[in-house]
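Run Olfactory receptor 10D3 through structure prediction, thanks.
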Amino acid sequence: MNMRNYTSVTEFILLGISNSEGLENMLFVLFLVFYVFALLGNLLIFLTILASPKLHTPMYFFLGNLAVFDIFFPSVNSPKLMDCLVGQSCTISYQGCVSQVFFYHTLGGTECFLYTLMAYDRFVAICYPMRYTVIMNRRVCTFLTVGTWLGGFVHGSILTFLIFKLPYCGLNDVDSFFCDIPVVLSLACADTSLAQTVSFTNVGIVALTCFLLILTSYTRIVISILKIRSSEGRRRAFSTCSAHLTSIILVYGPVILVYLRPASSPWLDSVVQVFNNVVTPSLNPLIYTLRNKDVKLALKNVLTQAAQPSGCKE
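Sure, done. The structure for Olfactory receptor 10D3 is below.
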């Protein structure tokens, strides 16, 4: 292919969600509700943890980081998706596409590492309760959390460099509602085999490694819980892990379906990506408040204090 006969792409056209013709207004309202709920719900969780001294523990420190993540993650793609649904603009600049790929996979990597960290926290709390505060001290928690966000940054940077070092000089129709590796790579006017192999391996290794570490932690947790003699003790131990396990299923399901299956289905890809981008971040506040008495009590106290007139005393 003679590259001099082609003009470099300066913008991409997002084709949107497959098979959604005529449903744009309904989808816009639906996604707007999920997006606003994700922002407000996770902001409320974060502020509740920040304002409640009883929640200043490693478990809730990591939950606060998850709330911050769930504010950022839907903000990568949802505003542009809703803009396209109302017919404003379905085009995105080359730089905007680069930004979407970078932030999507930076935050995606951070999410995997963060869930692994939360599983390790539960493992230490249940398997080594007497040493928990020593092992998971503030310095360790800070170090692990910074490493989590830096790890996501490195992950996203590698993938973005691999994808956009390739030339894009012909087609610019992105067969999705946002820029992601599979759909963008298909538009490159050069051999993409190396980028496909490395990106597939990178995403696969990160997701699989985190999943195996989480599985190892929970295997040890289950073994320890089964050794507890009282049924009440076992129930309480399981209840502290149930919310985290629910979130893991919601996160890893879409990753497996989109990235780790051999055949591609545009409709299934769209459904799974929408669920991962918009729905899951809005569900986490419900998952972690409905199944956690400490968070519910702290949230009630924060809302009660906020509702009191200024200067009102107990």
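The beta strands are 11-14, 91-93, 173-174.
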